[in-house]
Each structure stands twice: as C-alpha cells, then as structure tokens.
Amino acid sequence: MFKKRNLVSRLWLKHTDKIRYKQYKWELKNQKQLAFANFINDADKLTSPAKIKEYAIEKGCIRLSHSGNAGDIIYALPTIEAMRRMTNARIELYLRLGQPLILSGYNTHPLGNVMLNERMAEMLITLLAPQPYIDFVGVHTDQLIDIDLDYFRAGGIPLDKGNIARWCSYLTGVNPTLYKSWLTVEPDPAYADTIVMARSERYRNYTINYKFLNKYPNIVFIGVESEYNDIKKIIPGIKWVQVEDFLQMARIIKGAKFFIGNQSFPFSIAEGLKVPRILETSFDVINVVPEGEDGFDFFFQEHLESLVDTLNNRK
C-alpha cells in the first residue's frame, strides 16, 4: 500500500537511493491521478452523460458555473452546447468572480491576480447571452450549482498541453463538436478589408517578428493598451480599436478579412467563430489547437509570412 513520505524522508531517499526515489515519484504521481479520478467520479457529481441526462429529465434545468479565465469560458462553450443538444434542458451559466489567478515567471495578466472581475463578466455576458444554447447567464451569488466547470483545475488534467476546448468534456464525458462554430454574431462590415490582430503578453513565440506586416495597409489591434503600445513599436501604422464589450470584439473579428493572434482571449473568439485565423503558437505551452476550416497555426517566421500572404490574397 502506498504511503506518502514526509519532507525529511523524501530528501533522505533522494540522496541515498535514486532508483527507489524515482519509483516513489512515479507512485506518487499515480496516486494523485487516482485521487483526482475518485474525486471526479464521486457518485454525487454529474460527471457522465447518463447522470446528466437523468438529472435533466428530473429537473429540467442544468446550472453551470465557471470562474474564468475569459478564454477558458469561451472554450467551455462547445461542451455546454453539446450538453444542451444532448438533454434539451434549460442551461444556466453563472460566472464566479474574484477567484485567484496564479501567474508563473514574469507573466502578467490584464486582470492582475484574479481570473474574472465584475467588468470582465459584464463584457462577457454581452457575447454569451445571445448564444442560442444558453438560456441564462449571470454572475454567481448564492445559486445552487449542478456542475462546476472549474473541476479541471483540481490537479488531474495537465493544463499546459492538449486542447483547452476539451477540458470540460473530460470532466463531464460530453464530447463537443470542435470543427464547427460555437459562437454566433453578426459581422461588422466596416472591417471586411481589414486584418485584425491581438497579441497578449503571455504565450508569445519570441522567435517571431511581425515587422513584415508594415507592408499591409489595413491592420487593427484589439487588446489592452499595454499590448497595443508594444506592437506599435514594430508596426507603427497599426490602429487600436478599444471595444466596449466582447460582443463588439466578436463582431469585428467576424467581419475581418482574417485574424492573427497568440494563445489569448481574442483568439478563443476567432476559434469559436471559425473565421480565417492564424495562431502564433508558444513553444512553452501548447494547449490551443485550431480545429475546422480556415484554422492555421505556426511556429516559424517563414510559415507565418506565407499564411498571411495566402489569406490576404484570397478572393
């Protein structure tokens, strides 16, 4: 039977018997995964299609919660859509505010040390509320929740690899359709001949230089001011669009000629809309995967420039 060692015992084993120490680390990892599986498969949790269907028949409504980040919420939507399609039950989505955000290294985030605040939730709701598979979306206060979509953070799912859009499906067993669009908005026709770009401070590929975009006349940037000021050093003529909410952002992306972005919130919208899109892939964390028509990603400069040229010259 596995027994977890204390700090002194671990250090002693590490320095006296490296083979047994490696075996202990392997067994510890297995125990953590087993504990996570037991936590998820708890009889009281709605963590299988059969349980969810039975509950939906009985209650007629499924109440979900999510605490962010904003992009993670967008990537949860295809699973929510599949859940609605599977049960035909009323779907209510509640956003939890103020949950702590842990950043690694020198990374920064526009919201500082929380994943979702009131202003961000308000901006998100404008985009989420019109989606046909969500009957209600609002801020969580004291509502009872049937499925907590944050369970993927409990430690059993590796969050730095795979595809964020599958995290919630791993918890529920409800498989999303990722090659089709899961966001519906009207395009903004004012951007029909425009390249729209976003680049967050996190998840950058530092081998890439966007200076070549200076030869393309119509480029706008959507993102926070610090990100815009950074990209403007490389592309002086790029324009900044400050959006009022994320419905407006989605309409701009939908109406654009094509979208370029790294693994950030605006790209999650582009992915949900299935517009022509190019993903700057980070070498450090690869957990965003373009799926379906017109989705492209790259690691290297030459490939980026080729993709931009191809999409820009598309008739």
TrEMBL record:
It comes from the Bacteria. Gene3D superfamilies: Glycogen Phosphorylase B. This is Uncharacterized protein.
